[in-house]
Design brief:
This protein is α/β, with parallel strands linked by helices. It has 13 helices and 19 strands. Bound molecules: S-adenosyl-L-homocysteine, iron/sulfur cluster (SF4) and FE3-S4 cluster (F3S). FE3-S4 cluster (F3S) binds next to helix 2 and helix 6.
């Protein structure tokens, strides 16, 4: 299928709706002495965070002031996730709480979008159980927020926009959360249909942005002083395959890394089946590319990998990991692991533990398998009981914590460049930052370092964080 780039007229139409709402909101501000607030609540992955920055960008363009609490809002947009049951329950619970806010402010408009409501049964849940939600729109319809809002406000009827065709929408306003870390989507959707995963059903097929648009965006960010830029896609390794020309992710990364400036590039996520040595070579070649690779393994058992429809086996995975470690000895490798996939035996799980011992990840994100309605794995026999899942999950964490602790000891005494994020959330007395491999570093210093690179001499190495002091 050919990727559809949304015609400029469709984007312009949305800008016209934005202008209409802006005129109305400017009038409100003149009369009342304050601007209507808009609050965006985001669940899920970086893709959703990137979408929410567009939602906030459109809201700001429509004359709203972006506020940090729902109580101050005249517009609330809840951007939902469906990856695990827990994510959906959290979103539904938050939407439930907004009922009281709407009772206090009947002029409040509540919209729900994102992956959860790109599923028919969840649209029905909202329709019937959350009558105070004004409109719902799917992941393909993010750019239609202005139109939906205008129609809702002028006609009063509840709206459900879930039949929009998947496309690539360029030119929407973006209100970035940070002025030194940025997300740049390079592609949308997923073609892989891992049997446990809902993403292909709620994000559509793979669609790449044109490389010119991506390069211009990254150039602009570097010129604006952004220090850390993360290229996003469900599987960045298939970048360009839908475009029908000979230019892949490694080529794109190679070209982006040539941009002059003081910044570092990250990317996520890479599917191991498409991870190439060419890509590793590009990472090794450039100082501006983080020496970090997030390569989700999911399971260390070949038979489970097959049932997951992952299209690689352990030997291929280990081959690329070994190549990375040889080519880039200090590379930080991280992974996602699912515990308790249907049919996972003790032996399969042992395979995962063995993989951790062999690969020695710096960090993993681990998840207990959560059945997703409509995915093949949810219908598979031999679902693993919860108590077995939790027991395995704890063993996995214990092993990984030991490994991470051991690996981190090598940083003792090293001086590492860290991007400072300001006061730590857990202890505002100290500053917090991240290494190029995304490890957390705690240190003392002035808040003025926020958003800048600082050199830190490491004095203590823990499992989840390094501690150190600023050096010149
Ligand atoms: N596209 C990315 C991952 C997106 S989802 C990739 O392929 O790597 C992030 C992680 O959530 C996945 O890597 C997987 O480990 C986990 N995940 C996805 N579906 C899940 C489910 N049904 N239950 C538990 N974990 C799940
Ligand atoms: Fe889900 Fe697999 Fe696609 Fe990742 S590659 S989003 S895990 S289907
Ligand atoms: Fe969740 Fe959708 Fe991302 S399901 S993990 S927000 S792609």
């Amino acid at each position: 299928m050919k990727t559809k780039i949304l015609p400029i007229e469709d984007i312009n139409a949305q800008f016209e709706y934005m202008n209409l709402i802006r005129a109305e909101n400017d009038g409100f501000a003149m009369e009342n002495g304050f601007r209507k607030g808009a609050f965006v609540m985001t669940f899920g992955c970086q893709q959703n965070e990137a979408d929410s920055e567009k939602i906030a960008g459109m809201a700001q363009n429509m004359g709203y002031e972006i506020v940090d609490t729902p109580e101050k809002a005249y517009l609330i947009v809840v951007n939902t996730c469906a990856i695990r049951e827990h994510a959906e329950l959290k979103a539904l619970s938050i939407i439930g709480q907004y009922k009281h806010i709407k009772q206090k402010n009947p002029n409040l408009v509540i919209a729900v979008c994102g992956c959860m409501v790109t599923q028919e049964h969840r649209v029905n849940d909202i329709k019937f159980k959350y009558p105070y939600v004004d409109f719902v729109f799917s992941t393909a319809a993010i750019h239609k927020l202005p139109e939906l809002l205008f129609k809702k406000v002028s006609k009063g009827k509840r709206l459900y926009c879930n039949d929009e065709e998947y496309s690539v929408a360029e030119g929407l306003p973006i209100r970035r959360e940070s002025n030194y870390r940025a997300w740049v989507s390079i592609m949308y959707g997923c073609n892989n249909f891992c049997t446990y995963c809902i993403v292909p059903y709620v994000r559509g097929r793979e669609r790449s942005r044109r490389k010119e648009e991506i390069i211009a965006e990254v150039r602009g960010l570097v010129a604006d002083g952004y220090k850390d830029i993360t290229l996003l896609g469900q599987n960045v390794n298939s970048y360009g395959k839908d475009m029908g020309f000979d230019y892949d992710f490694a080529d794109l990364l190679d070209e982006l890394a040539e941009i002059e400036g003081d910044y570092i590039l990250h990317f996520m996520t890479s599917h191991p089946k498409d991870a190439t040595k060419k890509l590793v070579d590009v990472i090794a070649k450039h100082k501006t590319i983080a020496k970090q690779f997030h390569l989700p393994l999911q399971s260390g058992s070949d038979s489970i990998l097959k049932k997951m429809n992952r299209h690689y086996q352990m030997d291929k995975y280990l081959d690329i990991v070994d190549y990375m470690k040889t080519k880039i000895p200090d590379i930080v490798i991280t992974s996602d692991i699912i515990v308790g996939f249907p049919g996972e035996t003790e032996e399969d799980f042992e395979g995962t533990l063995e993989a951790l011992r062999r690969i020695r990840y710096d960090m993993i994100y681990s998840f207990i398998y959560s059945p997703r309605k409509g995915t093949p794995a949810a219908e598979m026999p031999d679902q693993v009981p919860n108590n077995v899942q939790s027991e395995r999950f704890n063993r996995l964490l214990a092993l990984q914590n030991d490994i991470a602790y051991e690996i981190n000891q090598k940083h003792m005494g090293q001086t590492i460049r860290v991007l400072c994020d300001g006061p730590s959330k857990n202890n505002p007395e100290v500053l917090c930052g991240r290494t190029e491999g995304n490890k957390i570093v705690l240190f003392n210093g002035s808040v003025e370092n926020t958003g800048n690179f600082v050199n830190i001499k490491i004095t203590k190495c823990e499992t989840f964080a390094l501690v150190g002091e600023i050096v010149d």
